[in-house]
Amino acid sequence: MADSPLPSASAWAIADRNVGTFRFWFVGQRWEWSDEVARMHGYEPGTVVPTTELLLSHKHPDDRQHVQDLLDHALHLGGSFSSRHRFIDTAGRLHTVIVIGDRMLDDKGAVVGTEGYYIDLTDTFAQTRRQALSESLPELFEARAAIEQAKGALMLVYCIDAEAAFELLMWRSQHTNTKLRSLAAQIVAELGTIDPQRDDLRRQFDHLLLTAHTRAE
């Protein structure tokens, strides 16, 4: 398969430096990072060649084996994975990220690797959570059913835990300036538009997650 540019990070958030893309080819275990992912790790774009060893060296010691297991799973079972974990950049700063990877196919439909997104929640999650819990607690209780259902959908599609699913919802809420309950309700309302029989289930859900705010009340 001929190399092509990495998918734009703007697919996840317009002008958001906290979102970047990656590709990982199984043969040769070759990586590509977008400029955003390189900068997350503390490197100027083009100054480092990402490798599995480099990637693992940045992971928090308590999360390193978890990430290694995910890579082994992707290599042996088809390329899709999702994870919430921590890494340490070149300046020693700790980052909390959600990484969402899907199968990468060649022109004949064979799985040749995985590609996806890094979403850095380090700067956004703590503030958003404090605001949501301190200023909108009654609204959150009222909207709990929709939020729980939206979380459940995120957990199922991206194979992440409940905390990571909540963080992802919060991140979309903040970066789209949409109330959490409205965003969750819109996602739940539109789940029926997704066809689970299609091969691109995750991409369908990506589109829903990234555009639901434009239709939320």
UniProtKB/TrEMBL annotation:
Enzyme Commission number(s): 2.7.13.3
A GO term for molecular function: protein histidine kinase activity
A Pfam cross-reference name: PAS_3
Matching InterPro entries: ANTAR, PAS, PAS-like_dom_sf, PAS_fold_3, Sensor_kinase/Photoreceptor, WH-like_DNA-bd_sf
Keywords linked to the UniProt accession: Kinase, Phosphoprotein, Transferase
Residue ranges occupied by any ANTAR domain in the UniProt entry: 127-188
Top EC class, one word: transferase
Organism superkingdom: Bacteria
Occurrences of domain PAS (ranges): 33-78
Keyword Phosphoprotein listed: yes
Signal peptide as annotated in the record: none
Catalyzed reactions per annotation: ATP + protein L-histidine = ADP + protein N-phospho-L-histidine
PANTHER family: PAC DOMAIN-CONTAINING PROTEIN (PTHR43304:SF1), PHYTOCHROME-LIKE PROTEIN CPH1 (PTHR43304)
Protein name per UniProt: histidine kinase
Organism: Mycobacterium lehmannii
